[in-house]
Amino acid sequence: MPDPPRPTRKVPAMILRTRGLLLSESFLFGASTSAHQTEGGNTNSDWWQLEHGDGPVKEPSGDAADSYHRWHVDMDLLAELGFTDYRFSIEWARIEPAPGRFSRAAIAHYRRMVEGALERGLRPMVTLHHFTVPRWFAEQGGWTADAAVDRFARYVAATAPVIDSGVRHVCTINGPNLVAALGGATGPGTGMPPPAALPVPCRKLTDVLIQAHRRAVAVIKDISPEIRTGWSVANQVHQALPGAEDVTAAYRYPLEDVFLQAARDDDWVGVQAHTRTLVGPDGPLPAPREAERTLSGWEYYPAALGHALRHTARVVGDVPLIVTENGVSTADDTRRIDYTTQALQDLAAAIADGLDIRGYFHRSALDAYEWGSYRPTFGLIAVDLETFLRAPRPSARWLGRIARSGVLPLACP
After folding, report:
1. What are the structural domains of the chain?
2. What is this structure's pTM?
């Protein structure tokens, strides 16, 4: 199936000469969501069980944004705002609710989402695994079980009706380095921890996730060799303080670089960047005391994206890059615009310097469940959790205009 038509771009020549970088027509410009964070009612997943147990999660996901039923509203808004692409995940726990038993209804649902995106002129990027797994998979050992890779490959094969036509980009696993760092769990329990608190992954679990990714790529290529496959690494933007260069490299390799190296044979690699990690002689440090903090508790650091893109390019070589997540959790939408402006300026500078960057997806399209709390608001679109009313923020209209124009802002000389 051919790509859907893109909105016509009208770009004043003055902007091209003095203030912006013109993107190619094939550049992906959209926003991201994930299934568990937005769909609601994901009762068969391991995270639903975690939310309703005696563990540290005190705020369950519940109905979330009810996007399982309101996905068409979300896509209508994104298309109207001017975005040309939409990254969303499909939920393994819905598609395979019991081992080897596949839900035709769930598969048909996600296929309707793909077709709905195409009908609206949105090119879908589909993520197959975004932290959550079926409850039965977790109970049988999760990613540490001997059969984990085979089980994941079986699920990927079952997604063929969803992705076999009209889907040009598939992400196998979102944030595999976070999954590995958290010991195969799907999240930290009370929201994503600050980068300095992430433990170093064990090598065995890292190897399993790399094997699962490679098996998934092979399965997808059997479904359709035209699909461009990759995975998305959560870049930590490690920055060494004086005298800590070797410590930084030793910490960064198992938490990030080994996953980037595994992408060297892929069609593309995803870059996720939100903040930075300072590293001293004794290891990762908390954010500076004087730093502005986001609602996630992270340092407000819009330069993260530029650093992440350049580091990723150094590690992967000539593999194309796609920004799969970049954004900030804040109650002040002007800070979201300020943050994203610098991120886009750094993105433009990286492209101008010759980096092969094929797309940008903002995190996130909607306010969503942030792994234990609804307090951190990343959304371009606000969601009322009582009525499910969607309300695009000024940042959504601002970023949508940039997406429609196809011109990235340049930093002032």
Report:
1. 21-407 (3.20.20.80)
2. 0.94
